Input
Amino acid sequence: MFDTMSDMCWLQMDECWFFDTFLEEPNTDYVGTNLTSHGNTGLSDCQNFCLENPQCVGVVHVPSTNTCYLKSDLSGIFP
Output
């Protein structure tokens, strides 16, 4: 179940058996690594934006604002 008031981070997995899937990390952000952002975006659209961008390695989706942040790097974790 998802907490609609918290940030959700979804990481695109590199391994072939996880291709096109994401791993949930609740209440997590990766600061300073934004490629782009999209407003009024649901989680599945956010993930699709990432899958379409070869530089994207993960996303942060904020359910309370339906904002999607595509990430270029997964260092700089901020719990």
Observations:
- Helices lie at 43-52.
